[in-house]
Amino acid sequence: MREQRKAIHNLWVKSFISNKRRNGFVVLAILLTTVLITAVISLGSSLIEANEQQTLRYVGTVADAHMNDLTDEQYDLIKKYDQLEAYGQQRTVGDVEDSNLTKKKQQLILHWYNESEWTTLRKEAITDFTGAFPKKENEILVPLSALSMLGIKEPKLGMTIPLTVRINEEVREQEFVLSGYYKEYVTHRVTSDLSYILVSDKFSERYPDPAKKNTVSVKYKQGDVLEQNKTLAKYLKLSGYQEIQSTFKEPSQNKTTVFLGIGLFAAIILVSGGLLIYNVLYISIANDIRFFGLLKAIGTTGKQLRKIVIKQALLLSVVGITAGLLLGWLLSYWLVPVALKATTFADVVVVSTAPWIYISAGTFALMTTLISSIKPAGVTAKVPPVLAIQYVETTVRLKKVRSKAGGKLHLMAWRNIFRDKKRALTVILSMFLGITLFISVNSAIDSMNFEQIVVKDLPYDVDISMIVQSSTATGEGQAVLAAIENIDGVSDVHAYLNEPILVDYDKEKFSGFIDSYNDYFKYGRHEPSEVNQENFIGKLVGIDTKEVAELMKESGEVFDEVGFKKGEFGLVQTNNPEDFSGIPVLAFTMLSANSRQSIPIGGVIANDYLGLQTDGGPVLYMAKEAANMFPNADLLSVAFNIESQKEEGIIQQLKAMIDEQPNFKIITKKDMLKQAREEIMTFRLLGNTLAIVLALIGLLNFVNIITTSLIARKQEFAILESIGMTRKQTNQVLAFEGFYYAAITSVLVATLGSIVTFGLFQVVKSATPMAVFAFPVATMGVSLLLIIGICIVTPLIVMKLSGRQELADRIKA
What we know:
Strand content: 15-25%
Number of domains: 4
Mean pLDDT: 78
Number of strands: 19
């Protein structure tokens, strides 16, 4: 008995080793499926984790909400509120005055966090922390970006840093000691040229803010943030100028969308990969059924045959899954950084290597392999030895050929496809899923038209704006504007001018305006009791008459375009026109020329149109065409177009000019479009890498099934040739079979596949509202033509290779 088992084992091992082609197909199927599952889950997990970390870092805090300008009494109430996990306080103390920073268009802010704010809410959002939170009055905690601005490349704890600082409009020299440094991210989402220097509690107490402006952050223990905000606002009895705002965090809807997208992608991979593994194993074991019949004839039991099949599957799984997990891990290390580079997560490269990813991928591949082995193993165990030895491919039932047209080649081909319905369904479903995903991914990427977003955000070729605005007009903006207008090739110049003005202050008349201003610009509010004639500074803004006329037309208001263009009246910025019902004329002094003006108020422009904030006074819009009103005005911003043939040279000229102007920055549509194209190419590379591999799984499934089927049917074809069927007719039958596979797949892709494509687009649109669906006609057409070509050519090639044997030899096979 032992000798028999040993002999059977030896026979199986030799047979297993000799079937290199079959084993290679099975291992490749398992490997591809494992690689894809591993890569997709790893990529999805990495993106989610990177998104969470990037959101945390760019927000700069773990707080759920923040409030402005709480009183001491309200802050005491915060301390007693039992629904808070943590809370803290912060404010801006001053800024750093440095001519080198101004030339480089950089700004450093002296900022204060109390220790609770830093320890419980802020520290988690930074990296590379070295040192300690400042304790002494002269100690500072400085981010690496700020140290770099100051020219310090290799910071050392305890080093002295002399700074010129402006606090409460007073400039002083002071030496600080570096208590620590770290890498920050929060200021990056505002401007890369702004950074904080954190001062100690003692320093903040020495230089209090006369207006008592502050920001208080809170983190709730649990519950919905919006509901908690409402409850807290009611508890604190926030006034009209105080506001509680939720900290920006990734909406749960976006996270759900990401999970749905990854889940959909993974599900298709699981089904396609499972079909491939099942199909390859089923066919390979079915082709070995004669061998198993011989084993059964010499005494092997059904139970032993099942063990042989399962052992064979396990052995192939060990090789395929191990290699697949390794390749998936390597692919993830390449895929994730490339993916993150194309997103806003470039600062956070997280390659998720959680064990559950590889356990899940390996378990699925193993389970699929074992499940795929159960049925053929059962067939092998039950089939009688005589029938197993005489086993041939499934034949067509006689009732299906009782027709005068039964001998037509295209009908023969149709019957051949469905001789094994399960096999045909597996091939068609596998190809359908692969091609559908390839088309869907391309369609989803094409819908994210980043270029269109750039065009919408930047209607002009170039946009130049002032970064730091002075309290008095310097006139340098006028020189920039004049230089731009004199460049040959520049057209459609659209500019805003800015002139600081000291408005004649009347407490009773302007009280309504100040309240409305504070209600809208809550974090830039002005304490009414501290507003006076000396600091009631507003803006005189020059704007194109045509732009204002279009704005008024949209709002349905009557507008005297001619009068506005002549400078006969102006428009004030406010959301409450009634605030100026008692102020028909705005009297002010132009600070740059020390000249007085009185301009009638002829209407209003909403706060959110340009969102301009002032030092207390109103914003007055005047026609830019009334040049006498803006003798020394600065340039607030200018946008314009450039002739395409001169674009490259003019942009270089403009960049060189703006580099010499410390208060201006330049954005070009060309640079933004280039960045958008790079991002979309990266997304396309990532998506298509996975989609093409998945499509190849479907094609590999087809090639494998057709190849094994034709090899199994070569005796049948040889018999048909022996009774008069020509090789040309055989090839035509095979070509028809391939075409039918392709045609059925194409119909499914064009119908059900279109629904899947549109569904994936809806997932993308929920995360990218500007996405626009366009039916992927070109992608679908090329994909289906390729499928048809492969499906027709593959059986012909296989048949040609098998046809090299003599007819007699093929009949005997």
